[in-house]
Give the backbone structure.
Amino acid sequence: MSSPEPAHVVVVGAGVVGLAVARVLAQIHRDVLILEAQRSFGMETSTRGSAVIHAGFYYPQHSLKARTCVRGRELLYHYAALHGIGVRKIGKLIVACSRDELDTLARLHAQAQANGVEDLLALSRQEARDLEPALAAVHGALLSPSTGIIDCHALMQALLADAEAHGARALFNTRVTGAQVTSTGFTVAVDGAESAQLHCRVLVNCAGLGSVDLAHRITGLERRSVPRAYLCKGSYFALAGQVPFRHLIYPLPEPGGLGVHLTFDLAGAARFGPDAQWVETIDYEVDPRRAAHFERAILRYWPGLPRECLRPAHAGMRSKIVDARQPPADFRIDGEREHGVPGLINLFGIESPGLTAALSLAEIVAARV
C-alpha cells in the first residue's frame, strides 16, 4: 500500500469505543485517521457481546465505569433515536436465587442509588413472579426499567459515517506494529499490503484486546506505565425453542463477569451467557461441553429450562488488566499526566460496560486531547 497521508490524529481500533472517539475528534480536528487491523469494524470485541445498554449500578461510586455508564446510557439512547438505530428498552430483572443473596441484592440497590440510577425497583418474590411467572426459584429481584438492547452493528455504522462526514478516514486490514515518540508527535508503523509509516501529532490507542501490546510497542513510553493484560473468555449458548420471559434475566454478578444471564437480540431470539473462563490465548470457539455448566447456572433461576436444549452460539473476549484473584479494575484513560508523553492517550481495560459507556468515554478522550 502507498504510505497514508499524515494526520493530525490517529485512532487505533475501530470497535465501538474507537469509532465513538474518532467521531468526536473528527468534529473538533477533522483530520482524523482510523486504523483497524480487521477487514471491518467491531469484529474483535464489539459484536461479540450481549449488546445490552446497562443502567450503571454494578460499579463503585465515582469510578469511571459508573460515571461513563450512567452518562453513556442517556447519550446512547438519544443517539440511537437521532439516527434510527434499532433499540429496545426491554428492562432487566436481577434475581436473588437464595435467601442468602438478598443482602447482596440490597447492596446492589444501594450502589445504584449512589451512582445516580434512580429508577431501580426492589421486588419481592411474589412481585418478581407476577412479572415473570417462570421465575419460580427466586427470592427477590431488582427491576431496571432503563436497561435495553441495541443493534450494535448499526450503531458502529452510524458512528463511522458521522466520523467520515466530518473528515475522518478509515483504513481496514491495516495493523499498527509500533510507534515512535518524536519531537512533533509520533511516527506510526503500519502493516497492510505493504509496510509503511505515517506521522501524527495525537495518537489514541483504542486497540481493545491489543491495547496493552500496542503500548509496549511505543518507543518512548515507559513500560511501568503499561498494565499487564489478561484474557477472560465468555461463551454464549442459544436456546432451541422459546423462552417464557419478557425481560432480560440476570443472576447476581460473579468473579470475571455478570453471571450467565438471559438476553435477547432485537428479533427476539434468546441466548444465555457469557460465562467467565480465564484463558491464555484468544479463542472464539464455543466448547459444547460447557452446556452442562450453563444448564446448572440457568436452572437456579429458571427451573423449567428444558433439558439438553442449549446450542453453542458464539464467544467473546474481555479485555482485563487484573487477574481472577483481584477485584475488577476500573477503566483507564491514560494521558500525559499518567505517562508523561504529550499527545498520547491509552485506553486500557475497556470491557463491559464499554458499549454503553462509549459516547461518554469519547467525551473524556476529547477533553484530554
